[in-house]
Design brief:
Length: 272
């Protein structure tokens, strides 16, 4: 059957509910209610729905700016860390057990997802490089609550050439695999990450698990990656702002984030 107006009204709300309940409260909806699962699967079998479907990370980043802050509980820590890309959840090989891919975006179609991510990088190369350079530039003033957009940030154009080289290697890795891309990428990228000196007003702290996080004493902003205005910060900035479906599909976004982390790790290796 075709979806009704009621179905169309509630599918977006259910997407948000599934992501936010899991992230902030540790409550799993998907996989527990068979009728809801059947309803979701019926939508996910439709390519026109898949083209508009978001992912958990995009939802939890967008919801606070639209509906106010979420209130996190301790029991949600493990899964929320995975959704946010912590605890190596955005590393190759990906483990997305906390977020099932739609049937037409399943792990069996990983090559297609990698190629989609590569296509988006190539198709929008100049704009993406310029956007990523905001990571080493000046923060947006006034600050803006929609972190995925960050419209007032200023790029540091001194990094354009270096970011372009990084993203070329990421593209090769997406198309040909990291094993094929590793040698040339390491030759060009190793030791190029820059110093760990933080921006003014930013300080490092530790959470209860000993994980480092960073606090801006001026704005109250929190970051889990060091805001150091260096080349690796540019790739982190891009990684943390890959939105679904704005930029690409769910599976492609997961692959791009993990491949950007691969390049970030190479930047931190000793110079060859």
């Amino acid at each position: 059957d075709d979806p009704s107006i009621v179905d169309l009204q509630y599918i977006v709300q259910m997407e948000r509910l599934i992501a936010s309940a899991l992230y902030w409260k540790g409550l799993t909806i998907r996989g527990k209610f068979k009728n809801i699962d059947r309803w979701l699967e019926a939508f996910e079998d439709r390519p026109n729905y898949i083209a508009t479907k978001s992912d958990y990370y995009t939802h939890i980043m967008a919801i606070p700016s639209q509906n106010g802050p979420g209130y996190w509980i301790e029991d949600a820590k493990e899964v929320s860390n995975k959704i946010y890309g912590l605890d190596n959840s955005w590393k190759i090989p990906l483990n997305n057990s906390h977020e099932p891919l739609a049937p037409k975006k399943s792990s069996d179609a990983r090559e297609a997802a990698c190629h989609e991510a590569a296509f988006q990088l190539v198709s929008n190369a100049e704009s993406i490089v310029y956007f990523a350079c905001r990571g080493a530039g000046e923060p947006g003033r006034p600050s803006f609550h929609a972190e995925m957009a960050d419209p007032y940030a200023e790029p540091n154009e001194d990094f354009i050439r270096a970011v372009d080289v990084c993203l070329r290697h990421v593209t090769v890795a997406l198309v040909n695999g990291i094993d094929t891309a590793a040698s040339n990428a390491q030759h060009d990228l190793a030791g190029m990450g820059g110093s760990n000196e933080l921006r003014p007003n930013w300080y490092e702290y530790k959470d209860d698990d000993g994980r480092a996080y960073y606090w801006d004493d001026e704005s109250g902003a929190i970051a889990w990656t060091p805001p150091s205005q260096q080349l690796d910060t540019c790739l982190m900035y891009l990684r943390d702002r890959v939105g679904v479906p704005r930029d690409m599909g769910q599976a492609a976004a997961m692959e791009l984030r993990s491949h950007l982390n691969w390049a970030i790790d190479l930047l931190g290796l000793p110079e060859a």
